[in-house]
Structure formats: structure tokens, C-alpha cells
Amino acid sequence: DTEVTQTPKHLVMGMTNKKSLKCEQHMGHRAMYWYKQKAKKPPELMFVYSYEKLSINESVPSRFSPECPNSSLLNLHLHALQPEDSALYLCASLPPGQGPNEQYFGPGTRLTVT
Amino acid sequence: AQTVTQSQPEMSVQEAETVTLSCTYDTSESNYYLFWYKQPPSRQMILVIRQEAYKQQNATENRFSVNFQKAAKSFSLKISDSQLGDTAMYFCAFHGQGGSEKLVFGKGTKLTVNP
């Protein structure tokens, strides 16, 4: 298995809803990432989990809550979102080993907040 | 902090021709990795090519090659024999070796290949 999967592909939610995004990889990667991407813009880093521990939080509002239950799974819990949170949410993972390496990206979840 | 600059927001090229996308970066690190990622419309972001800064030889992957000028901090991507499937956003990205797990992206270049 050499891919990062994300579910759901599309999500429409109201501002009072609670929903979760899911990301999985079974490549034994050491770090997992959440990015937010607006149209025609580069991905913006939100969170990084390294060896299942939160290592980077880019001052993301608390209405986004990440969770890493195990080394293969990454969740992003959403609550009380705003319309400006509508975007493509990308998950990525980083192979093990010393030094930098390329990140593997999932297909993303397109989120619409109404 | 590292920065990555892509000075061409949009480019177009005719099918079968060659196009070069520009990328410059700024860093004080001596060793790092550079990447070009491709994101087709409504499709997944995939790695096109990577370059390790300590390697002088320019990376090549089939029709894709880079011109890596370390002293000038330049990392351009050349696409030869352009195909319609090359139409995509292209992001240049930097990953340092200073312990950070962050990937620093440029703003992207939208490439359109015309038939």
C-alpha cells in the first residue's frame, strides 16, 4: 500500500455541526500533516504529528482539533466552523529516516461550510 | 526563515514544446532538499522531481529536469515535449535539514498546455 487516503472526499457542514476528517497511510511513515488549501494557493500547514505526538501547531483556531490515534491514522475534528474555513484539506505523510524527504499527499477533502 | 519565490503566476505552452518554470529560494542552510510538486485541476498533488543540495548533478525524471544553481539559489523546472496532461499548478518547495519538519512552498505557477 503506497498511498495516503482521505475520507470523505466532499463534506458540506453547517456552522453548528461537528464533523471529522480522516486520513490513513500504511507505509510506516514517521510524520503526518494537515494542510488547508484555498484555490490557486499553496497548501498552508496546520498541524504536524511526529511519531504520533503533536510537534507543530501553526496557531490554528481551536475549532480545528487534530488527533493521531496511532501511527497510521490522523483525524481532524471540526466544530463551529466559519464560511471562511471552506477549503481543500490535505493530509500528507513523511517517510522515516534521517533528514528531509518528500511528503506524500492524499487527494484531500473538499469542505464547504454553509 | 526560508522563503521560496515563484515569479511566474501563470504560463502557457504549446503541446510538444519546452517550458521552464522559475523558482528561487533563500536559506542560510548548506544542506537541504528542493522539490517540484504538480497539482492537476481537482486532482492529487504529486511529486515531480527532487534535488538534494549536496549533489551537483541536476536531477532528471523522463521529460522533467531541473537547473539547480546553488550559489544563485535558483531551482528551475524544465518540461520537455509538453503534454496536455502537464496542465496543472506547479509548486516549488524547500525542506531544510535543521530539524524542522516543515515544507516551505512557493506561491505556485499555473501551467496550461495548449493543443
Features:
heterodimer; A: 114 residues; mainly beta; 7-stranded mixed β-sheet; 4-stranded antiparallel β-sheet; 11 strands; 0% helix; 56% strand; globular; B: 115 residues; 6-stranded mixed β-sheet; 12 strands; 52% strand
Q: Mean pLDDT score of chain A, rounded? A: 93
Portion in strands of chain A: over 45%
* Main sheet characteristics of chain B: 6 strands, mixed
Q: Determine the most extensive contact between two protein chains.
A: A-B, 23 and 23 residues
Name the beta content range of chain B.
Answer: over 45%
- Using the CA coordinates, give the radius of gyration of chain A: 13 Å
Tell me, briefly, the overall form of chain A: globular
Helical stretch count of chain B?
0
Q: Could you state the oligomeric state of the chains shown? A: heterodimer
Shape of chain B: globular
The helix content of chain A, as a percent range, equals: under 10%
Which regions of chain B are unreliable across 5 or more consecutive residues at pLDDT < 50?
A: none
Gap between N and C termini of chain A: 36 Å
Q: Helical proportion of chain B?
A: under 10%
Structural class of chain B: mainly beta
Uncertain stretches of 5 or more adjacent residues of chain A: none
Q: End-to-end span of chain B in angstroms?
A: 41 Å
Q: Care to count the β-strands of chain B?
A: 12
Gyration radius from CA atoms of chain B, angstroms = 14 Å
Largest sheet of chain A: 7 strands, mixed
Describe it for me?
With about 110 residues, chain A is an all-beta fold. In chain A, about 0% of the residues lie in helices and about 55% in strands. In chain A, strands 2, 4, 5, 6, 9, 10 and 11 form a seven-stranded mixed beta sheet that branches. In chain A, a hairpin with a 2-residue loop joins strand 5 and strand 6 (about 55). Chain B is mostly beta strands. In chain B, about 0% of the residues lie in helices and about 50% in strands. Chain B has strands at about 5, 10-15, 20, 25, 30-40, 45-50, 60, 65-70, 75-80, 90-95, 105, 110-115. In chain B, strands 2, 5, 6, 10, 11 and 12 form a six-stranded mixed beta sheet that branches. Chain B is globular and about 45 Å long. At the A-B interface, strand 5 and strand 10 of A face strand 5, strand 6 and strand 10 of B.
